[in-house]
């Protein structure tokens, strides 16, 4: 019986070879940022309001003109086919059934056209590699396939040092050491699926299906990205993408203000699940400062470290429009494929509704910062890094001008 995400995590550890579980579960260097994400979430408590009518609860929200059934979605994650063959499509279908968005990673293992589930909410996450033609063809295909928003990941100028992957010999081309081969043999069900499907590849790097991209795949796995991409590069993206554009990996309020000035449509507060800079601030600690910096002009989302509906309630109270979930869905996927991913989404939805009712909130908007106890002075909350109201007003004017100029 699996009663929470940790139960799914333990089950995933049992069914996956160690190198696969470590890739999913691991983080950069010592794992300090990974642990900080959890510790800071656990440090926060909610102060419920009482004698409020919660006989009917609505967890739905509207984002960019679309209705989400829940204020959470599935974050972009690469190499999903390693844990379960066909994993990207399974996650997309589970998200569509739950009425929540699925963000497809550039490092996905299924063609983006095949993943686009009819009636689903599909966003595309983009890594800009040194050859920008790869990004251009991805955007052309995503527009044609009906993807509704573009998520530019901005916290990966190079890959974080992931020690667990190094110890397991996980790299492309894959040449596992003897210990890893022995461990793989102890997981026959995973091995059988792997042998049937073959080593998953980053099949969206080439415009034509079946093209040989081994060199590009190795470059993407090691995050050999375009480190020259800067704020001015957003204009280049806008010329190729006319839908909502979000930046993922923002932690500093000053970057949030600059994004507003540049006409960005949304932000995802994230430290890449602790997989990049091990000394980075936790996402939940950065959230209030980023939310304050944009003052509601654009939606602010968050990921990194969220494991329950109660965690999501805390983020909503601190100003997030919604939360994106990563590892919990991969645990469910490893255990029971699409059904496992769907079960995790339902579990978290049930936890969130229960948290809302017990906090006296009949809808997401009823959660507010005054309900959150445990915000430390050191966190970038309120005026810290926010600038003057006059500066914020000027930023909004520039944001609107840039949106008009960049979309023509």
Molecular structure report:
The protein is α/β, with parallel strands linked by helices and 408 residues long. It has a single domain, classed as TIM Barrel (Alpha-Beta Barrel). 45% of the residues lie in helices and 11% in strands. The protein has helices spanning 5-15, 18-25, 32-43, 80-83, 87-98, 112-115, 132-145, 163-167, 178-185, 188-197, 214-221, 233-238, 253-261, 283-294, 309-317, 327-358, 389-406; strands at residues 45-46, 61-63, 66-68, 72-74, 101-104, 121-126, 149-153, 245-250, 266-269, 300-302, 322-325, 372-373. Helix 13 (253-261) links the parallel strand 8 and strand 9. Helix 1 packs antiparallel against helix 16 (327-358), helix 13 crosses helix 17 (389-406) and helix 15 (309-317) packs across helix 16. It is globular and about 60 Å long.
Q: Would you spell out the secondary-structure blueprint of this structure?
A:
Layout: H1 5-15, H2 18-25, H3 32-43, E1 45-46, E2 61-63, E3 66-68, E4 72-74, H4 80-83, H5 87-98, E5 101-104, H6 112-115, E6 121-126, H7 132-145, E7 149-153, H8 163-167, H9 178-185, H10 188-197, H11 214-221, H12 233-238, E8 245-250, H13 253-261, E9 266-269, H14 283-294, E10 300-302, H15 309-317, E11 322-325, H16 327-358, E12 372-373, H17 389-406
Parallel strand pairs: 4-11, 5-6, 6-7, 7-8, 8-9, 9-10, 10-11
Antiparallel strand pairs: 1-12, 2-3
Helix pairs in contact: 1-16, 5-16, 13-14, 13-17, 15-16
